[in-house]
Amino acid sequence: MRISRLFYLFFLVFYPWQTTMADQYTDTALSLLSQCYDASDEINSNITHCFNEKLKKIPNPLNYKISVHATKTKKSDHGKITVFMINNKGIMLYCIGTAGEKLKINACASDVGKPLTPEQELSIEGFF
Q: What is the pLDDT of residue 75?
């Protein structure tokens, strides 16, 4: 009985910490994406390259993989931008935004799924 209480207490303490870490990383990643977006004239591979280089320089304790996709290449076209983040523990974050003079993130949602198997991790590597 004591072990189950200890496990429950551990879960209550550890899970919010992971969520907080995810929120901090998400906020930092979206801020970096906005910086790269503002520095570029078009939505192209330069933004992705800039974003990936900046991401390598920040701590990533939950080992997120990030993918950014845009529906249009010109800022003036006001296309949609999606940001997808996932780690091997099954934590997924999905943000949608609107391109314009400035990048506007409209909404983000998160979900926790099953931890990924090594095969699933490899298939995700190909996606990113």
A: 85
Pairwise CA distance, residues 49 & 55, whole Å:
10
Q: Please name which of 90, 87, 93, 91 lies closest in space to residue 68, comparing C-alpha atoms.
A: 93
Q: How many CB atoms lie within 10 A of CB 25?
A: 22
Amino acid at 48: T
The CA distance from 88 to 91, in Å, is: 7
**Beta bridge pairs of residue 92:** 86, 111
Residues 91-122 pLDDT 10s: 888 999 998 889 999 999 988 888 878 777 66
pLDDT digits (tens, 9 = 90+) for 67-83: 888 898 888 888 999 98
Matching residue, tokens 């997120």: 64
In angstroms, how far is CA 49 from the centroid of its own chain? 15
* Spatial distance between the Cα atoms of 48 and 69, rounded to a whole number of angstroms: 9
Which pTM does this prediction carry? Answer: 0.69
C-alpha to C-alpha distance for 26 and 91, rounded to whole angstroms: 12
Residue 81 near residue 70 (C-beta atoms within 8 A):
yes
